[in-house]
Amino acid sequence: MLRNNLFFFVPFALAIGLLPFVFNDVFGAEIPHYNNTITTLICSGSSCSSSDNPTVYTDIIGATIDSGNFTTGNKYLILLDGYIRMDGVTRMDIQALHGSTVFPDSIQLGDRVGFEWATYSWFTVWTAVSGEGIKLQWKSSSANNDLRMDEYSLISIEISEDLTENTDWFYDNVTASTALTTSWSTSNNAEITFTPSETSDWLVMTNDVLHTTSITSNYEHRINSTGTITEVQPEISREGESSSEELVKHLYRPYTLDAESNTFTAESRNDAETSGTREFSKVFALNLENFVDNEYTWIEAQKAYTGLVFNTNLDSDTITPTSEGDFFVTAGYVLDTPDISGFYTDHRIQVDNIDLIDGTTAEDYQKYNPADLTDEIRYSQTSILNLDTSAHTIDSDAGCFFGCSSRQAEDRNIVVFSMELVSSGTVFEQDLDDLVTYGDFLNVTLDAGAVVFEQDLDDLVTYGDFISTLLLNEISTNMTDQVTYGDDVRLVIAIPSNMTDQVFYADFVNITLNVGGAPGGPIIPVPGVTPQGLSLIEWIVYGFFAYGAMLMLMIGIVKEIPGTRTTSLLRIVFILPGIIGAGMLAGPYETIIFPTVDTVNAITLTTENFTETIITTSYIQLQNPVWIIFHYALMAVMIIYTLSQVLTMLTTAPLEANRNKGNV
Fold this sequence. Notes:
The chain is mainly β and 664 residues long. It is built from six helices and 40 strands. The strands form ten sheets. Strands 1, 2, 4, 8, 9 and 11 form a six-stranded antiparallel sheet that branches. A hairpin with a 2-residue loop joins strand 31 and strand 32. The relative contact order is 0.11.
């Protein structure tokens, strides 16, 4: 049986000091993430409405995610979402960079006349590079055109360390250029296909970059889903404002998917003519069941505006967090059937009647004014905020400024999920060196190339053992059937989540030790492993010598038998087997095993005969960990007594010498 094995006597005071059991709960760790939400107006020039605005790409001050928020080599979902504005008549360009390198599919070259706010939303999956962060840059075609940014979020979520690509999330990115026709694109579409392991909630996002060559036709983008949900919504559409725009089109939608094949495709087209190209296409899907809490709504049906200034509640949802922590919150909609005669809209998200992004209600920015009756424009806000365990209500509100009765909002949705990861329980790690001594035999079984071992926690952890935490089930493989002292093998203990913060004496917790297979692979329990210990006859022999020697020691002290060199030598000879016996009883063998019983049963069926052999091993498991300390104490007492007898032998004069002295 595995047990921390002491190789020399530990004083009682130290043993008592080891009794506290240290337990670190790692259930519910948050996935690494960062959120930079801009809540104060940023202007491109020395002041808003100045005439010194940049005509070459210039960093947007404050629109960054510093490099310190990334781990080199890890993959991150980067999401940018919010509002930008140009006060002028010509072009506003914007792009995202990692370090000094531009993400080519983030470049938007937009022409617009007016003073309304427009959505710039973009995402990517990026592998972090040492020393590089994320930032935004912008420029104008004229120094007189003032550029502005507000209600804007830059978000990163680490998705490669705790989540598994092509299991927990899927991503496809196509960079080939595709000519747009009046039919939805069928080539070079970003597309993902997967089968969830069970019915589960997913968030799907797409980005297409559309290059315009016409100012009379619309450029459109949609998500095409097949499988559990076969639909072609949401969809957005915008008329070209010049023959050289680059429009970054972004969509997202939550889905509940069954355990069947599901496909999501990013598609684009021109609604009236063969004109323009799609330069980039990407799609991403994230399993929201990886997170402790998630809620979403999706309403495709149109809803009419009912008044000015956020008077129309487009959608509401409620979430009650399992535990306090950070939550990703986004909500949006698509404006349909617009009126181009001076129509503007507004949009906000509130959590418990408080703006998700500070100042949204007070600022009440006039959002994008459609330029064509067929335009379908998307509006959204996104951020990450901390929520406690009370119920929280999320509202998505909108309003309008002119002719509200004819305005319709469709494809309305809210998505909320925690940054806290789901775990099957608390996971612990300890070096096997601390538990296995030289020669200990692990009753292991080879199964599909992996060596596995199962045992009760009671048999491995004594009251006072220190166990450190380990989030990932990473197992070393340097192990054979016979474990030698110093082997680098880890013990992984999975504690059910319904247990208390501390594992007390006699708590029954199953553990599994995987010493083979790929790191992080499945752990295969092996039932019916027989505990190892001493046989009944071994316990009797060791107990006889240990307790017999202790009894002899006590009798010798009570009767005050004179000490001579000869008697001291005899006492040492008789005490030594007792020391060995006490050491064996205090060692890793706290199980008394009885002889195995083989039962052979003959089983006769109609056409065949079978023989069933049942091997039964009975044993007694000693439960109290004080047993270990007690027998080490006995061993220590006998060692001290032996040392005293050695000193007696060295300091006592020989008996014959004493007799001769008396005759003189």
